[in-house]
Write a structure and sequence with these properties.
Blueprint lengths: L2 E6 L22 E2 L32 H19 L10 H4 L2 E10 L4 E14 H14 L16 E12 L17 E6 L2 E5 L2 H6 L3 H11 L6 H4 L4 E12 L8 H20 L10 H4 L6 E7 L4 E6 L4 H13 L12 E13 L15 E6 L2 E6 L8 H8 L4 H10 L2 E12 L9 E2 L12 H18 L12 E4 L4 H12 L7 E7 L8 E3 L4 E4 L2 E4 L2 H10 L4 E2 L14 H7 L4 E7 L8 H13 L5 E5 L4 E3 L1 H16 L3 H10 L7 H12 L6 E8 L1 H4 L5 E9 L1
């Protein structure tokens, strides 16, 4: 792998409804051993346009904070000059400017959007300054996947610089290559006659991949079959490491994801008050009243389907809302006699002024947002928050009968322009009237409906647990999570008792279970204030629920998913018995991809970090369902072995590849990802059993396990 290669980093653009891929943007410029996420298309080798003599010694890796500040300022200057089509003549101090460099990538981002990313790497080593200037220029002007960066965007760009070092060819062959890869430290390059790909180090840690999965994805990103790295001797592998420097945008812009559900609900409440001529008694926060320099938009939709929209510059969200309400009240030329409530709003943010010369080649990724055409004083909005394959820009132009040629002419005259926006939809999450408590749905079926009998049954199971744990470590508070089964107590009550006998349950518990019913949202927390059980109730931690709704936009607050759900209900009586002051966050998660769980994992990790006393995370899950006892036990052992490694990706891959119907696998993977963000996990299997132990029927069984996570 000699010679210089230029690469475009093939990121996926960010949809505002999807968890953000945070590659290390910080509040200041610091040298960090972190890396940006990237994969790369094959490119022809080429040399830097500036002087590139062979440099002696190894690439510079010992960067100071002053180096970081200097490099970020230098890169921003080079970026701005490139966008403005100006020459760039600045230089860094000689010791830094002429330091040897193996490779560099520059990433330009908005609040959540990737705007461009390019890089160069290879032998011979190049002077860092000229190389950085060239890569910054390439990034600012030469990433063909995204619309051109305009001058208006320059103060809004966050900059990441990834400096590569310590390249090493992997001499091992076949499966032995797995042992040469250290996840979290190494980035990877694959070079094959049919494709080349690169993945930076933290992609594996953020996705929870083990080394084999990392290599499979590397091959796939190069356009090769996933197993190319091990079966094809023509596939060369190289590892490398990186340093990342991050610099925030000089001018902050609205990040709707940071507003969270609470503020968007406040905005929706204010809109409905204005719509009905009622005063806004609640003081609105700065996020809703602040005037932003960028273009912003807002669309409202009522229960009856009426809609109104407003787009403007130097506007606040409440100002746009006021304009929309005026439009709604004056629709059809006369005031509304009985205005219907607004239940849905969509915020348009992260504006990108499009240029006609880019159309259509650089507009292909504009699919999951909005396009606004302003033409001769009139404007039209094409809005859809669902990713689509059609030409969104072309459709917006056709809606106002403007051709691409007209656009170019209007752009030159200043009479027309086209702007793309990210879109954040939001629907009302108000608690239903008169629904303060979730009533028991499975009492008398999974556990006793009589309060006294229920408590006596719990105590018997806990006594079994205490007896089984004699001679083992006593009750401990160091456990961050547990996995408990949620079948009927005659089947799994002893396993619950044995597991909880080892745990000091804190006052706050987050129970995450699978979604067994088709009702309600895929990710859901209940809107209730308490959860009733026979003879008692458990308070719901509504403050934590509100914070989670802010942290995880995909999470919904609604009652339907919980009405008949037993995953939490079966466990709450046990948890309250061992912790009388219990309060709970019940949550359900439907089946999904491994990647889809990252947003929830990050939200949980952020929530836990904010609390003085961490909650206990409870994974509610049974093991494999309905195989014959020997086969069921074999499948359960495979899933548990994968889980006990502490690698969530291993658990997910094992269950998926072997079709193991562990119903709480997604909650388990999510919790493990969240815990891994702070420190490695230690897992212990406390107990395993299956339904055959209770029924004697070995033809069709379900497995149950209790696991402690430290």
């Amino acid at each position: 792998m000699q010679g210089w290669a230029t690469h475009t980093m093939a990121h996926t653009t960010h949809n505002p409804n999807v968890d953000r891929d945070d590659t290390g943007a910080g509040t200041g410029a610091k040298a960090q051993d972190r890396t940006g996420s990237a994969d790369h298309n094959r490119a022809e080798p080429q040399r830097s346009d500036r002087s590139a003599s062979r440099r002696a010694g190894a690439p510079l890796t010992d960067f100071t904070d002053e180096h970081a500040e200097t490099m970020l300022a230098y890169t921003r200057g080079a970026t701005e000059a490139a966008v403005r089509n100006q020459s760039f003549t600045e230089a860094m101090p000689v010791s830094l400017d002429q330091a040897p460099a193996f490779g560099i990538f520059v990433t330009l981002r908005r609040a959540t959007l990737l705007r461009a990313c390019r890089g160069r790497w290879g032998q011979p080593l190049q002077p860092l300054g000229p190389l950085l200037a060239q890569v910054a220029h390439d990034t600012a002007t030469g990433d063909p996947r995204f619309p051109s960066i305009t001058e208006d965007e320059l103060p809004l760009l966050n900059i990441d610089i990834s400096v590569m070092f310590n390249p090493a060819m992997v001499g091992a062959k076949g499966e032995d290559r797995i042992e040469a890869i250290e996840v979290g430290k190494h980035g990877l390059v694959i070079d094959h006659p049919r494709g080349r790909g690169l993945l930076l180090p933290h992609v594996a840690t953020e996705q929870g991949w083990d080394a084999k999965t990392f290599l499979d994805h590397l091959s796939a990103k190069a356009g090769l079959p996933p197993d190319t790295w091990r079966r094809d001797p023509a596939a060369q592998l190289m590892t490398f490491q990186t340093k990342l420097f991050t610099g925030p945008a000089p001018q902050p812009e609205l990040d709707v994801q940071q507003l969270g559900a609470r503020r968007l609900q406040q905005l929706l409440d204010a809109i409905n008050l204005m719509l009905h001529d009622q005063p806004i008694e609640r003081k609105l926060g700065q996020a809703l009243t602040k005037v932003y320099n960028q273009d912003l938009g807002l669309q409202l939709q009522t229960e009856s389907g009426s809609s109104a929209a407003a787009v403007g510059h130097n506007q606040s969200l409440i100002g746009l809302a006021t304009a929309c309400v005026r439009s709604l009240r004056g629709c059809n030329g006369s005031p509304m006699t009985d205005p219907q409530p607004v239940r849905r709003l969509s915020v348009l943010w992260e504006p990108i002024r499009l240029t006609a010369t880019d159309y259509p080649s650089r507009h292909g990724l504009i699919s999951g947002g909005a396009v606004v055409v302003s033409w001769n004083g009139q404007w039209h909005m094409n809005l859809d928050d669902r990713p689509t394959a059609y030409d969104r820009v072309g459709q917006a132009l056709r809606s106002v009968r403007v051709s691409a040629q007209d656009w170019r002419a209007g752009e030159q005259r200043g009479t027309g322009h086209v702007t793309a926006f990210s879109v954040m939809p939001f629907e009302s999450r108000e608690r239903p009237n008169n629904v303060l408590a979730r009533q028991p749905a499975r009492a008398g079926q999974f556990y006793p409906a009589d309060a006294r009998e229920m408590v006596e049954t719990i105590d018997r199971h806990l006594a079994v647990g205490q007896s089984a744990n004699r001679g083992k470590p006593g009750v401990e508070s160091g456990y961050r999570a547990v996995m408990l089964p949620h079948a009927g107590w005659p089947f799994c009550g002893d396993t619950i008792g044995k597991t909880l006998a080892r745990v000091a349950v804190p006052e706050t518990v987050i129970v995450i279970g699978p979604k067994h019913t088709p009702f309600g949202s895929a990710w859901s927390v209940p809107p209730h204030e308490q959860w009733n059980m026979p003879g008692s109730s458990v308070p719901i931690a509504t403050d934590l629920i509100e914070r989670l709704l802010e942290l995880v936009p995909q999470l919904d607050c609604e009652p339907d998913a919980h009405q008949q759900e037993h995953g939490c209900e079966v466990l709450l009586p046990f948890l309250q018995r061992v912790q009388p002051n219990l309060r709970v966050v019940p949550m359900v998660m439907a089946a999904g991809s491994y990647e889809s769980t990252a947003t929830m994992a990050r939200g949980l990790a952020d929530l836990i970090a904010e609390l003085d006393t961490p909650p206990l995370l409870v994974i509610s899950s049974d093991m494999n369902h309905f195989a014959a006892e020997p086969e069921n036990r074999r499948l359960d052992q495979m899933a548990l072995d994968a889980m006990l490694t502490g690698h969530p990706q291993s658990l997910y891959n094992t269950c998926e590849s072997h079709q193991i119907s562990m119903c709480g696998m997604i909650p388990a993977v999510t919790v493990m990802q969240a815990l891994a963000k702070t420190r490695p996990m230690k897992l212990e299997l406390v107990d395993y059993t299956n339904s055959a132990q209770a029924t004697g029927d070995t033809s069709r069984v379900v497995g149950y396990a209790g696991v402690l996570i430290e």
